[in-house]
TrEMBL record:
Pfam family, one: GAS
Annotated compartments: Cell projection, Cilium, Flagellum; Cytoplasm, Cytoskeleton
Top-level division of the source organism's lineage: Eukaryota
Organism the protein comes from: Euphydryas editha
Entry keywords, A to Z: Cell projection, Cilium, Coiled coil, Cytoplasm, Cytoskeleton, Flagellum, Microtubule
Parts forming coiled coils: 28-100, 124-348
GO biological process entries: cell motility
The Growth arrest-specific protein domain, residue ranges: 221-374
Keyword flag Transcription: no
Family note: Belongs to the DRC4 family.
GO molecular function, one term: small GTPase binding
Organism classification: Eukaryota, Metazoa, Ecdysozoa, Arthropoda, Hexapoda
Name of this protein: Dynein regulatory complex subunit 4
Amino acid sequence: MAPKGGKGGGKKAPAIVIDGVDTSEMTREKLEQFTLKVKEELDKEREERNYFQLERDKIRTFWEITRQQLEEAKAELRNRERATEEAQEENEALLETEKQKIKHLKYEQQAAAAALRAENLVALKAAKEEHTEQELELLNDKRALRQEMREKMLAAQDELRRAKLIHAEELSKTRAEFEERARQIEDKAEKKLHETKVELAVKHRTEIAEVEERKNKQLSELIAHHERAFSDLKNYYNDITLNNLGLISSLKQQMEEMQKVKERAEKIARDAVAEAKGLREPLEAAIVDNKELKRQMSNYDRDKAALAAKTKQLASLEEQFEVLKWEYEVLQVRFDRILAERDELKARFSKAVLEVQQRASLKTALLEAKLKNFEGRDLGPREIHDLIKLKDTQVEDLRYEAARLRKAHDDLLATYEAKLAKLGVPIEELGFKPLKAVAVAGITPVIGQGPAGLVTKDQV
């Protein structure tokens, strides 16, 4: 129905403002969208109100439980204080009884000490007299031993002089025998060398003559064979030219065979010449050996002096080897001891790290359990702030413990490396790679960020 005209027809409807938005000028679609939006916000506010009411109820319940636990803890504390007072009274009574017992024991001890002192004086006097007699006997024995030692020393000096004389005689005999043997060896070597030269020369001449004879015989046979072959060839050639041209190929084959025979003869001659040269080489080697033997005999005295010097040097080196062997054993013992200390330090450090990890894991488990309990409760801002502060304190405690362990580890490692450097053992020969940081319960290790003034008790 259309609006009526009149005086009121020109007036505007009052503006409706919702959440700061003027709805008087909105169309129907915008009003519907705005209505849906306002309805969603209303539902959201109702859900948040219900959620906060539930959280408030949870916090109140948690506060009641905590207050009850506090009352129980106070009651337990009072009971423990009462038990402590009773135990202290019992300890005082027991202490008084023990003091009386100590007085009686001190009196008995003084009496026993006086009696023992008197007995000791008598025993000391008797022991002193006996000691004086023993001292006189020992002085007499000492004088007798000195006389006996003097006689033995004189006898030992005489024996030493006789041994030196015998040794000098044996040494001169040995030297003479050795020189005689050296001369005999030299004579035998020269004689053998001369015989070898003669035998080689005779053998060489004989073999050369035999080779020349074989060569001449083979040459004469070859010449006769060639002459016969040439005459036969001439006859064959005449026959071939007169009768049959087919014999030419046969003659050619015979010529090739004769050429092969000739080549074999020349090869035999070359082998004979090479064999003669091979016999000349042993003769030259024997001459060289003779010169070498003469040179060795001329250097005999020098080698003998060098042998004596080398013997002395060997004795000195053996002494040095014994000293070095003893030093090596000492160093080995010290190195084994240091390795044992290293293993002990590693075990102690691993044990400390394991304890910290266990404590940190326990604290983490407790915190996770508390967080699970708190997740279903409605905490206010103050309670949340206190809980976060408690967590930060626990995290700082864990970090401080980790820093203390890192500092202890670094101190132990520095001390160990200093000992190794003092003993001359390279750090590369440790057999393991030293740790530089420790990860404890998920805490990121940062080297060098521990407390500056922290000093470990385990430092060697």
